[in-house]
Amino acid sequence: MKAIGAWDRFSDALRAEGFRGGIETDRALRAAMSTDNSVYQITPDLILAPMDAADMALLAALLDRPEFAALQVTARGGGTGTNGQSLNRGIIVDTRRHMHRLLAVDAEAGWAEVEPGMVLDDLNERLRPLGWFFAPETSTSTRCTIGGMVSTDASGKGSRIYGKTSDNILGLEIALPGGLLSSLGPVPDWARGTLAAAEAAARQGRDAFIANTPRLNRRFTGYDLERACPDAGAFEWWRLFLGAEGTLGLISRIRVKLRRIEAEKRLLVVGFDSFANALAAATPLLAAEPTAVEVMDERVQALAEQAGILTRLPPALQVVPGQRIAYVFVEFNGDDPALLAARVEQARDIVATLPGAGAIHAAADLAEIRELWAIRSAGVGLLGKVDGPARPVAFVEDCVVPPENLPAFVDEFLAVLTAHGLGFGIYGHVDVGCLHIRPALNIDADADREKLVSVSDAVFALTRKHDGIFWGEHGKGVRGAYLREWIGAEAYAALQGVKAAFDPQGRFNPGKLVSPRDDIMGIATTPFRPFNAPEGDALTRAFRCNGNAQCLSYSEKTPMCPSFKATADLRHSPKGRADALREWHKSRDPALEADLLGVLDGCLGCKACASTCPVQVDIPTMRGAFYADYFGRHARPFADRLTLMAERLSPLTVALAPVIAPVWPLVARIAARAMHAVDMPDRLATRLPRRYRLRACDLARALPDRTVILVQDWFTALFDAELQRDMIAGFQALGYHPRVLQMRPAGKAAQTMGDRAGFAAMSAKLVRLLDAATATGRPLIGMDPAFVLQLRQDYPKAGLNPPKVLLPQEFLLTEALPAARNADPVRLMMHCTESSARPAAAAEWAQVFAALSIPVETPATGCCGMAGLFGHQQRHQPVSKKLFDLSWRKHVGDATAVAATGFSCRCQIERLSESKARHPLGLIAKALA
Q1: What is the mean pLDDT of residues 93-121?
Q2: What is the value of pTM for the model shown?
Q3: Which domains occur in the chain, in start order?
Q4: FAD-binding PCMH-type domain: from which residue to which, for each copy (predicted)?
């Protein structure tokens, strides 16, 4: 039976047998699952998201039925692979969505058991109170899963001391047709034949395997015949799965070895005048016994400088504009402060002797060390943000050679790139001989695809010449096409024997690494993902998405991406939405279009992706472009038409508020029923006294000194009387004369819903009004951060140039402020759009409160779940409430006064808790009273 047409029957059989997880053929989800952080794209047919190991075992058992013999299956974790490891046709098993639990911890013995979909940072955050951590420190730790790390044998910073993932695994459980097989328990009878066949093949090829694998810290893994067949002891079959990339079966449970958190940490950052000198510094610095030595070349530094990231560096390490510096990061960990101090001094002495060494900075504070490493990571993420059709891509980026061979290897590697006319960026782990070199290619161009093959072949040969390994950190994936040549015919035949024992029909991640057939995927014959949109296309950012997947962070403390945090569903992420938009752009498939509508409807429009994503994949803006196209061909829903009308007529509603106010509760109930909405504002804001109002016709008159012009959006003008009072009271208490500018809607709803004509009309009127207000010479201060950031982010993209409207804290930072006496503490909660677009916003407010002598705390939070109309819509209540519970609920409800900068956030707190939040200026007014 052919696999095509079997998906419905297989899905029906799963449900009939009691499979409790997700079973989906949604085209948008399949598009999201068709890419990773590589240049490849393979669309699967069916997505399964098992709830637990029992679901996985059921899946494996059903696959063994004769009628499903042609179906193939590939496991997927965080999808951060750089080589297409988890891309395939057939079934994708999404372990990230449900199988992300910490199952057991033994704090005395130092191990933990986890499900394969658990995220690395999540695991370590839970282990931290116990004094333990799981060692491999990957650059994608906020979203990579333990199962994916096991499958690719991931590595990262500190591996010279801590080893790779495979060095920190104690055992596995896998799902086979006969049931669950655990390395930590007895072997069931049904599995004995499988293990016997695997052992026979492994032992037969062990000597050839060892002869063809260099003795390196970053050792070769994946079907590791050497450690699976120790010189003394029983066959350790589970070691074959470490680095096997799902080609042997489904991993359902993992026991990891833990390491004690060292009490002390130090970091030296050194600037060198060239990458060559930075690279040459690595070997001498090893004498000081650091935990890690990493480099960042001048190209990455330049990108970080352009993005403003280097302003977060200590002053000694900052450069004048245009200056090119290569940075070396040297970390020391331990429990003995005196020993660490000696090592740091030894490293300083070594640096003093090195050519090209410049400024040096030593950090001992853990928060500062995290920030410095974050700068390095952020700079690397920007490699995908370069302009033009060619961008740095990961396809030869994790080769490992003995550290002493690294300078010669790099010289020859760069000569290969120069010969092909390719630019590049470099960073990596020089202490273990692993550099990440990303050549810039336009994957859409046939010539560059040919260069990909030519460079791959040349670098593979160089790696062998310098006694290295072609796959040192990020797994093999499609680059496994070189495995047969690298390992040799005898060892490869043994790997085939192992594959045949566990997967006799070759159905697990077929075409990768090892196969009984001649069907290994090629680096140029595997389908490539589209790389560029036509110039000026509204969906160009969807094509720029490189699958880095920073948007898939699990942490409730980070803004991006709220809908993914609430659902763990890849299609409800910026990456997933970008994939679906790109596929729709290419195919215009009506069925995909229908699925895409649902996916885009789940976006909260918080704009975190527009600023936090390294390549700024701005989903809300592209959603507006898609809606403009779609609703140019289809009728709009009544609820959308009602919203657009309400925004367009909002100035009239404000003007008629005294007349409308008595009947507004009835109007609100009728509108809520028509819009399928809940908890809509049931009262209108009362009109401000005349002395505070600033009409357009008043702008020609001179305004008194210390006047500040407050600018509001239509929602706060209509429904947030308390904000207006708080802003006025706060600025008055600080000695200013606040005036509230006549409201003109900014067109937020029109822009969001793709009503281009409506947005153009409203935005043009608002810009004219703001220009006139700016001509008075008085500062303009926005009353809601989402409104201010719309002017900054969205208006320029639409070709508009509004004058500067400040956030309140931006204005107050430069002012002389009075001190309050005996002020009560305040807990300040930031609007997620504000904290993502302006990461310093919380710190700026903290400076303002400190100047006022008001105690303040600014907890890190994600989205509150309201996001304008999103939290009012009936269909979004589960996501809205879950987001509030994830991130905000624990910060409200005690005796501390709560301030929130966003109108939506204050509404959500009042709606879903017993607390009430004020705008910060309201609490400032209270403290100064």
Answers
A1: 97
A2: 0.92
A3: 7-97 (3.30.43.10), 264-479 (3.40.462.10), 542-630 (no CATH), 639-928 (no CATH)
A4: 40-261
